[in-house]
Write a structure and sequence with these properties.
This protein is mainly α. Helices cover about 45% and strands about 0% of the residues. The chain has a two-stranded antiparallel sheet. A two-stranded antiparallel ribbon has the order 3-4. β3 (about 65) and β4 (about 75) form a beta hairpin. The longest helix is centred in the first third of the chain and has 23 residues, at about 95-120. It is globular and about 70 Å long.
């Protein structure tokens, strides 16, 4: 009987699954009777490919950062050398260098979450302080996630410069505000995202009511519902996820992620597609959960871990510049990946 793959194709007709399972692909017969072999996923057609117009080859439109006539940016993702690495947890990776870098970023992200829960640095300590007003703590957590910690010795300097009190109903002054590598702030939008957030909280009666939701909700359901409701203009997926993950780790609200809430062209989603070798969101979420379980990591760690892996350089995200992954956590992730 014919065998179908996860893409609902015959295995020998699927360039992805044929490569994964070492199955010879079925030849293609053209209307003129000529038989050709289809190239597998990731194979290069070469600079002189007959299917590529000469004008395109001369223009170098496939280069990283090239822009097409319709204004679409095409990026070539940096990949390590294919050295035969394979792991069922990360089927999209063929390079042990890529896998080692992923392990380091996942371990760093998990170490960061543990630090937030046990000994939060900088402004995170104010958010975690139960003696402070919960509305002020929540507002400060939002500003940290929205503007993003800076890189370097003073990661919260930019936020300190513009922060305001929730009770004062005064928005931060945005002229020349310094933002971190994961910021959601777009100067072209001005204060519209901040205004939308305050209006969102006021409709619920307070920030505490908006983030707390129903008392009967489990932490995972609360995370998912609030994440969905926080889809405000200018507040991208990364900022929403980081806000809820940090509020949960800092003990402000009972929040815990049951999924990465992947979708669109978000950097974490792009990284997940590369790592897990598939584009279907449901399968991406399943493979992310499997990876977190196998590595004994909180699922939230995959968010910052994939962000830094895709970025190609570690953003400290509020941690000290010399902070490194916990050695035991790193060893557990490397072992799970077979490194």
């Amino acid at each position: 009987m014919p065998s179908f793959c996860r893409h609902n194709r015959l295995i020998q007709n699927c360039p992805i699954c044929a490569r994964e399972q070492a199955v010879e692909m079925r030849p293609i017969v053209s209307p003129g009777g000529q038989t050709t072999r289809p190239q597998r996923a990731g194979a290069s057609t070469g600079a002189g490919s007959a299917t590529q117009p000469a004008s395109v080859r001369r223009s170098g439109s496939a280069r990283s950062g090239a822009r097409s006539a319709h204004g679409v940016t095409v990026r070539r993702m940096a990949r390590g050398v294919d050295d035969g690495f394979q792991s069922g947890l990360v089927p999209g990776l063929r390079s042990s260098a890529d896998a080692e870098r992923l392990a380091a970023e996942l371990a760093f992200a998990a170490t960061r979450l543990a630090r937030l829960a046990a000994d939060p640095p900088g402004l995170y300590a104010e958010v975690a302080d139960p003696a402070r007003d919960i509305e002020e703590r929540t507002w400060l957590a939002f500003l940290i996630a929205y503007f993003g910690p800076l890189e370097g010795e003073a990661p919260f300097a930019g936020i300190e410069q513009v922060r305001t009190d929730w009770s004062a109903a005064e928005l931060p002054r945005l002229e020349d505000v310094s933002t971190g590598p994961r910021t959601a702030h777009d100067p072209a939008r001005g204060a519209r995202t901040l205004e939308a957030y305050r209006a969102w909280a006021q409709r619920a009666g307070s920030q505490a009511a908006a983030f707390g939701g129903e008392a009967a909700w489990m932490p995972e359901r609360r995370f998912a519902r609030v994440f969905e409701r926080l889809a405000l203009p200018g507040l991208h997926r990364g900022a929403r996820f980081e806000l809820l993950a940090s509020l949960g780790r800092l003990g402000v609200y009972d929040l815990r992620a049951a999924s990465l809430s992947l979708g669109g062209n978000d950097g974490v989603t792009v990284a997940a597609k590369r790592v897990f070798g598939i584009g279907d969101t449901m399968l991406l979420e399943r493979r992310a959960a499997d990876l977190a379980t196998a590595c004994d990591l909180p699922l939230e760690a995959l968010d910052a871990g994939l962000f830094n892996w895709e970025r190609g350089a570690r953003a400290q995200l509020g941690m000290d510049p010399d902070d490194e992954p916990d050695a035991s956590v790193l060893a557990a992730v490397e072992s799970a990946l077979g490194l």
